[in-house]
Amino acid sequence: MSKRKLSRQQAWRVEKIQAERAKRAARRDADAEKALQEGELGPEQEGLIVAHYGSQVAVESAPGESVRCHMRANLDNLVTGDQVIWCAGEPTGVVVAQLARNSELARPDSHGGMKTVAANIDQILVVIAPYPEPHANLIDRYLVASEALGIEPVIVLNKCDLLQAEPELDAAMATLLDLYPSIGYRVLRTSNTEAGIDALRRALQGRTSIFVGQSGVGKSSLVNMLLPEAQLRVGALSENRQKGTHTTTTAQLFHLDAGGRLIDSPGIREFGLWHLDRPQVEQGFPEFRPFLGNCRFRNCQHEGEPDCALLAAVEEGQINPRRLASYRHIIEELAQAQS
Ligand SMILES: Nc1nc2c(ncn2[C@@H]2O[C@H](COP(=O)(O)OP(=O)(O)OP(=O)(O)O)[C@@H](O)[C@H]2O)c(=O)[nH]1
Ligand SMILES: [Mg+2]
Ligand SMILES: [Zn+2]
């Protein structure tokens, strides 16, 4: 559980949701057991979860083909990217065991718990676009989350075609992004008009990557550019507010022709970081690391204390003031969530 305090009403909601989950899990377990008992089931084999649909998962049975499966009891946290042991069956198979994960992408959910989005990924592609406008600090939040998970992030600015007609927006995007390469983060520019797709393809080759970002930035459109046969549904932005319309509803895994796996994920409203603590957030800014521990006070908040090594580094141009501002913003939010 998070450290966030829940109001009585929230606590009641969480309880209700947990009860519903337990009920669903019991029904699912019963389904799985029934299939196993009635079972014309095939032998146990290893497989990969390529999608998750409520109480069932899709397990890859052959390249490009998948089978719907129930899950055996206690396997209720399977996600896209998980390696499992499963048995084929008609009309549904059964997943009987989950293999250990190398990594997992998880984020706080709105009920005070953590939601795992995908497993066994080694690269997070943070997709942003001029429209919908990136939320404040969005990039830094994803970068901090990636650093905490130990998974390499890459920033992708999509819909670059829109910038040609709008020089001011072009300049604003350039300003937003120009500090990242010097910190060591890669920035790719793409568009569904082919621009930058080859570079994106190269970045994805041989890795297991996931597209994350706000709804409507064009994650599924990029998958369709890379893999036209995927034919994923894409959704126009809302007309009045130019916001995404939450078109993708489940994380789905694809194999890339040049080798590698790519997971498309549903856009999210906010990427909370209140599961992290202050040292994790500090470490989440790699350019802060050489200075951490050098402040006069051990518990320095880097707010204006005397002899603060981070503030000195900002003065000397070694840390960008926008990144320190982002850091403070995230810390403030943690403090609010935990008070
Ligand atoms: N101009 C332009 N429009 C794009 C580009 N990529 C996607 N779009 C449009 O942006 C809208 C949203 O695209 P999606 O691919 O559904 O976005 P998404 O990130 O998958 O959204 P969710 O599934 O809701 O998270 C659609 O109308 C796309 O046609 C691009 O490179 N340029
Ligand atoms: Mg989508
Ligand atoms: Zn300090």
Set out the fold topology.
Layout lengths: L7 H31 L6 E9 L2 E7 L2 E7 L11 E5 L5 E6 L5 E5 L5 E6 L3 E6 L9 H12 L2 E6 L9 H11 L2 H4 L2 E4 L7 H8 L3 E5 L6 H8 L25 E4 L5 E4 L13 H6 L25 H7 L5 H18 L1
The structure holds guanosine-5'-triphosphate, magnesium ion and zinc ion (ZN).
Distance between the termini: 15 Å
Strand portion, in percent? 15-25%
Rounded average pLDDT? 90
**Domain tally:** 3
Note the run of SSEs as H and E.
HEEEEEEEEHEHHEHEHEEHHH
Tally of DSSP β-strands: 13
CATH topology of the largest domain: Rossmann fold
Shape by Cα distribution: globular
Give the helix/strand class.
alpha/beta
CATH class of the largest domain: Alpha Beta
Strand order of the largest sheet: 10-9-8-11-13-12
* Helix content percent band: 25-40%
Number of separate helices: 9
Instruction: Label the CATH architecture of the largest domain.
Output: 3-Layer(aba) Sandwich
The low-confidence runs, each spanning 5 or more residues with pLDDT under 50, are none
Radius of gyration: 22 Å
Q: How is the main sheet built? A: 6 strands, mixed
Q: What is the CATH superfamily label of the largest domain?
A: P-loop containing nucleotide triphosphate hydrolases
Quaternary organisation of the protein chains: single chain
